[in-house]
Amino acid sequence: MKQKISFILNDSPVAVETDPARRAVDVLREDLGLAGTKEGCGEGECGACSVLIDGVVKLSCLMTAAQLEGKKVVTIEGIAAGGELHPVQRSFVELGAVQCGFCTPGMVITAVGFLKANPQPTREEIRQAMSGNICRCTGYQKIVDAIEDAAKNMRRSGSRG
Ligand code: FES
Ligand code: FES
Predict the structure, then answer these.
(1) Separation between Cα atoms, residue 151 and residue 60, nearest integer Å
(2) Sequence-ordered list of residues with C-beta below 8 angstroms from that of 152, at least 6 positions apart, any chain
(3) Which residue puts its alpha carbon closest to atom 4 of ligand 2?
(4) CA of 36 to the centre of ligand 1 (A)
(5) What was the pLDDT predicted at 158?
(6) 88-124 tens-digit pLDDT
């Protein structure tokens, strides 16, 4: 049976009529047309489907639509504010950490959520934070470099992301 589910999506209120047991990743991609959130494994292993729920990184393939009710949801489409790239996005681009389009949205979301909680991380802490975001093609060196760079830039500008 369908149910109306209301939440704040990328700063705008939305409501969807759907089966509350459907996966959040499907509601975001199919019902709301936000295809930036990717589905990789569909089993909570790869991080491609990461979104921010009330500022905390969550895997949308493991969430139901009902769990979005009343929440503040941010997808990759909501990360760049007012047409300006988020410092994490800028560092990813500038330092060549955008390796493929599939894992990058989840990587950026995870990094944004992580830096909110830990604005001055060590490289080891960054590696640890990104360990749930699987990249199957290259190394994580540039990704760690980019997150370290973004953290520095955000501290310098006083941004909390
Ligand atoms: S698709 Fe959700 S963790 Fe892989
Ligand atoms: S860069 Fe996307 S899977 Fe490796």
Answers:
(1) 25
(2) none
(3) 135
(4) 13
(5) 84
(6) 999 999 999 998 889 999 999 999 999 999 999 999 9
pLDDT beneath 50: ranges in the chain: none
Q: Which two tokens stand for residue 95?
A: 């330092």
Q: 87-94 vs 141-157: helix axis angle to the nearest 10?
A: 140
Amino acid at 159: S
The reply to whether ligand 1 has any atom less than 6 angstroms from the CB of 61 is yes
Three-state SS across the chain?
CCEEEEEEECCEEEEEEECCCCEHHHHHHHHCCCCCCCCCCCCCCCCCCEEEECCEEEECCCCEHHHHCCCEEECHHHCCECCECCHHHHHHHHCCCCCCCCCHHHHHHHHHHHHHHCCCCCHHHHHHHCCCCCCCCCCCHHHHHHHHHHHHHHHHHCCCC
pTM of the complete model: 0.95
Q: What is the C-alpha to C-alpha distance for residues 78 and 156, in angstroms, rounded to an integer?
A: 23
Ligand nearest to the CA of 105: 2
Distance (Å, rounded) from C-alpha 33 to C-alpha 154?
30
